[in-house]
Write a sequence for this structure.
């Protein structure tokens, strides 16, 4: 199956799943489905607007509504509910250091038995923002509560999984970022997922029903909203392979200043988050414009491929969702938020599908490059680093070698094995000697094969004398064990060690001293003059 076909099937499957989930999620509030038998929507018999608030009057027949509760949902409003002249329920504005809003919340007001005249008084926390009359429902409190929980469960799970996927993607990014050509887009997408998922989750009906610190939920929503534009902006910058410029840096600075300014105004009581959110909304629109610019630049380079088409679909859905949500926000229609979040679901699923395809391609390319790099730096016979890798190591450490230790090892009689027994036995000699060197040194040093029978061991920090004595004794012991068991090949490894000193001008000076000592060791082993 081609990559494009796979991505298309994933997107279609995700879309179908989204439609099914949103059908369950919307319920009667958004989609116009029939009311549950446990919930009856009621309309006030009269509404009066005054300077001290909005009054909604209800005349209920107590005979038909015994043990009933009045349910409604408000946003940034104080509430008083009266039966006749008796106050039976009240929500006042907060007086905490963090702010005064009552937030968005459900109200379940237990009504006394009998014929009732109910008055609900709603007062705006922010007088310049008018929310109007909410929807009122009547029914059994426990049944209504359970039904709202069940109705909002699907949306809650979708957003919880969104956060979980973002966190999992972040840890996956930590593991594979070295294999990715463009790893930053994965990081910022995971951040965008977590921030957006958390923002949606804290505003879900299930969260409002279970967690009653409405002030904290409200303010955390605005803080999360101020963080989202930067993550979304940076994701698009790397996803569409855009070069960083002055405008992009200015956006990040503006986002930071917006967050600081809104927080300072809020904490000083001058203007609360709700009253300064327009700046954040503007930044989100600018981020959408930036996304379109990224898609356009990508299209000019690559044409109308799956990524371009998917990006255009995403921006169309986002513009519709954001526009609908903004209209609802500034006209104070609470339920537009529900439709907007479904649009965000669709976009995140679509981007997620494209990202998975991108990630898969980058991982394959990265692993292929890693194989090529390994072939270029690893000696295929011994598994040690080769001469190319050694030269790169020497170049990389040429400016800072004051703590380096180095050993040179040479195999005695390798030419004799090749000439008298054949190169197969010579290779066996090299492989066995490399195994002895690796086992003797352990994991503390790096081993290189820098010639046919010559090996180099490097330590970034000078090893202790006790460590070296122990390693050379182990090497001698392993050679004896091998020679006693082998019928044909006899291994004799000559070694010389040197470490950096104040007189050294470069790494080659250290290696030269190690060479001299290795040749001295070779002379002692053979009983011959030191070769030149």
């Amino acid at each position: 199956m081609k990559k494009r076909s796979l991505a298309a099937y994933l997107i279609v499957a995700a879309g179908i799943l989204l439609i099914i989930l949103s059908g369950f999620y919307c319920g009667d509030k958004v989609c116009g489905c029939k009311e549950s038998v446990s919930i009856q929507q009621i309309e006030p018999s009269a509404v009066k607007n005054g300077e001290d608030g909005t009054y909604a009057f209800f005349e209920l027949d107590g005979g038909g509504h015994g043990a009933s509760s009045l349910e409604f949902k408000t946003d940034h409003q104080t509430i008083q509910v009266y039966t006749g002249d008796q106050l039976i329920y009240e929500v006042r504005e907060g007086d905490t250091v963090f702010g005064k809003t009552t937030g968005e919340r459900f109200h379940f007001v237990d009504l006394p038995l009998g014929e009732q005249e109910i008055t609900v008084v709603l007062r705006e926390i922010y007088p310049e923002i008018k929310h109007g009359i909410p929807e009122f429902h009547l029914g059994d409190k426990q049944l209504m509560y359970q039904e709202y929980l069940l109705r909002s469960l699907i949306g809650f799970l979708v957003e919880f999984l969104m956060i979980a996927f973002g966190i999992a993607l972040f840890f996956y990014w930590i593991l594979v970022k070295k294999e990715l050509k463009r790893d930053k887009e994965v990081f910022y997408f995971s951040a965008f997922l977590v921030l957006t998922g958390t923002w949606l989750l804290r505003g879900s009906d299930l969260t409002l029903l279970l967690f009653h610190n409405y002030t904290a939920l409200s303010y955390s929503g605005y803080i999360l909203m101020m963080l989202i534009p930067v993550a979304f902006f940076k994701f698009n910058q790397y996803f569409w392979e855009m070069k960083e410029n002055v405008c992009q840096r200015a956006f990040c600075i503006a986002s930071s200043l917006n967050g600081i300014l809104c927080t300072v105004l809020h904490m000083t009581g001058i203007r609360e988050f709700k009253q300064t959110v327009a700046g954040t909304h503007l930044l989100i629109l600018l981020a959408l414009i930036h996304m379109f610019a990224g898609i356009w630049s990508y299209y000019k380079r690559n044409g109308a491929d799956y990524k371009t088409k998917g990006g255009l679909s995403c921006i169309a859905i986002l513009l519709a969702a954001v526009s609908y949500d903004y209209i609802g926000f500034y006209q104070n229609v609470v339920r537009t938020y529900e439709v907007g979040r479904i649009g965000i679901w669709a976009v995140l699923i679509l981007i997620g599908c494209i990202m998975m395809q991108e990630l898969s391609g980058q991982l394959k390319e990265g692993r292929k490059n890693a194989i090529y790099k390994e072939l270029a730096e690893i000696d295929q016979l011994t598994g040690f680093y080769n001469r190319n890798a050694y030269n790169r190591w020497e170049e990389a450490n040429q400016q800072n070698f004051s703590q380096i230790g180095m050993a040179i090892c040479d195999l005695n009689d390798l030419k004799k094995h090749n000439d008298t027994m054949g190169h197969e036995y010579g290779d066996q000699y090299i492989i066995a000697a490399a195994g002895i060197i690796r086992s003797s040194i352990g994991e503390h040093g790096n081993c290189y094969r820098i010639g046919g029978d010559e090996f180099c061991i490097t330590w970034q920090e000078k090893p202790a004398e006790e460590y070296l004595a122990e390693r050379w004794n182990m090497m001698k012991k392993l050679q004896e064990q091998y020679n006693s068991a082998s019928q044909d090949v006899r291994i004799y490894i000559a070694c010389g060690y040197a470490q950096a000193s104040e007189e050294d001008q470069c790494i080659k000076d250290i290696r030269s001293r190690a060479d001299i000592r290795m040749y001295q060791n070779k002379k002692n082993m053979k009983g011959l003059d030191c070769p030149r």
